Amino acid sequence: MNTQKNNANSFEYHQVIIIGGGFAGLGAAIKLKEAGIHDFILLEKAHELGGVWRENTYPGCACDVPSALYSFSFEPNPNWSRVFAPQAEIKKYLQNIAHKYQIMPNVKLDTEVLFAQWSEQDQCWIIQTNRGEFRSQFSIMACGPMHEPVLPDVKGIQEFKGQIFHSARWRHDLDLVGKRVAVVGTGASAIQFVPQIQPVVEKLTVFQRTAQWILPKSDIDLPKPVQMLFKYLPFTQQLLRGGVYGIFETINGGIQSPTAMKQFQRLAGFNLKFSIKDKELRKKLTPDFIIGCKRILQSNNWYPALAQPNVEVIASGLSEVQGNTLIALDGTTCEADIIILATGFEIAEPPIAKRVFNRYGQSMADVWQGSPEGYKGTMVENCPNGFLMFGPNIAVSSSAFIIIEAQLTYIVDALKQAIDLGIRSIEPNPKLVKAYNEKVQQALQTTVWNQGGCQSYFLDRNGRNSVAWPWTTFELKKQLKSFNLNEYLTDFSPEKADT
């Protein structure tokens, strides 16, 4: 640690500061140490590491990517209890890795970043937190998109007479037994917790603004013999990982073609027809868009739960709340004691964008105006030495770890070159940023995200797809395999420039 004084101000200075303690931030810390870069700290706003798997604790919370692929390639876990690991196991896996790789001495918990700005004068990032000021030559913003809940703007919701909470802020102290519960939203979280609470509530009303395509979920227990096989013959788990990767890459490739996805949609259509016998309910649950346009969901118990006599599906969004009465856009009403908001997260506009400021004092959010742009999903104009995990247009229909590991390869290579060559600052070349984003947007035009006929979190408030990566993950890894300094504007430190 290096504590410096600047007038009345004292601050810690480090070569690198990582913001965020989920898998992306943890992976960054591990890869920095592996590269011999030890002067770094990780700032985490909560009392423990965990990211999205710390925030989401709702009943039934689990991964929707098989665990063999939803893990670091360099740190396989033979002890998963199921093909799709539950939340508690994933969080434990993350925290165990942090201790195994001795990352915790570099972590500052309960330290929330209030704002971060690049100082042209001091040639460093100035990061203000609730526990003082930190500075660094480089910053890695690994805040992730799925931790800030979206709260709906519904007339009268603040005056609701009962209890209300978001699924990512689950109220474990509330007893749902015998209660009238309304669920707003039918996305990835709702399809996991609704089947868990349906048997205990008196009445469950689901407000469905948009029906979802649901695939069967090939989730089974992984008994001890299988876990032992993975442990003592690790290539067996590697084979499973490779197989799962191939399946997801096939889907990812299919998304390039709406025609191909229509064929894939047949499986989801069969699942709906097989699971829901009531024709009226089936009609409500049939989407009017091509599968893949929204996030592809998997469940074996969502449809059976909705078919139960104590469940009503309102095929409309929530419009207004009057006391304990909820009114849908189509005029349908219901009474509720508890409202659970399953309304998702800020994806297209990451919350960190409001707290990160460029050399001109402009926040990323102000610059982007609702349509984020970056270079290779990792750097942003006028933010030298700032690296963004899960940046614009880098989401793929596969495991987040594919993105994390590809980006970290790229970022660590950039840091090593900068340190070895005495580079003071690196930033994207605006001309290349413009050309790159034009190419990305052109490639997205024919994908199911853009042509599938739905409004999803892939499309920002301006109707532009600023989230998805338009090509294969092979192409993603290829483009991020090495950091090409010729694509960037660099500023060498004076002593290196003279040599």
TrEMBL record:
Its EC number is 1.14.13.84. It is an enzyme of class 1 (oxidoreductase). It holds the Pfam family Pyr_redox_3. Gene3D superfamilies: FAD/NAD(P)-binding domain. GO terms for molecular function: 4-hydroxyacetophenone monooxygenase activity. It comes from the Bacteria. Keywords: Monooxygenase, Oxidoreductase. This is 4-hydroxyacetophenone monooxygenase. It comes from Acinetobacter stercoris. The gene is hapE_3.
